[in-house]
Amino acid sequence: MAEQDDFQKILENGISFGRGGERHDPNEGKVKTKAKKKKYITGAHGSGSARQKAKYREQRANRHKKK
User: Fold this and answer.
1) Which of 10, 15, 44, 57 is the most exposed, fewest CB within 10 Å of its CB?
2) Residue 65 pLDDT grade (very low, low, confident, very high; cuts 50, 70, 90)
3) Residue-wise pLDDT tens digits, 14-36
4) What is the 3-state secondary structure (H, E, C) of 1-58?
C-alpha cells in the first residue's frame, strides 16, 4: 500500500530533478603531476625518458612548420 502512496505523491507533486546530495571539492582525489612542468617537457631535469619524450615532442612540433 505504501507504493501506491508514493505513486500518488509523484502524480500530484511531480519529480524534482534538482541538485541533491553534498557538494564536493573538484580538486579532491586528483593526483598532482610534474608532466606539464616546463623542465619536464623540455627534458631538462635529467631523466632519459623525459629527454626522449622531449625529442619526440620537438619533432612533432617541427613536422608542420613551413621552411
Assistant:
1) 15
2) confident
3) 887 777 667 777 777 777 776 66
4) CHHHHHHHHHHHHCCCCCCCCCCCCCCCCCCCCCCCCHHHHHCCCCCHHHHHHHHHHH
Position 1: which residue type? M
- Which of 66, 33, 61, 67 has the alpha carbon at shortest distance from 53? 61
Looking at residue 4, what is its pLDDT? 80
Q: Which residues of 5-44 are buried (b: 16+ CB within 10 A; e: fewer)?
A: eeeeeeeeeeeeeeeeeeeeeeeeeeeeeeeeeeebbebe
Q: What is the C-alpha to C-alpha distance for residues 66 and 30, in angstroms, rounded to an integer?
A: 39
Name the nearest CA neighbour of 53 among 33, 66, 36.
Answer: 36
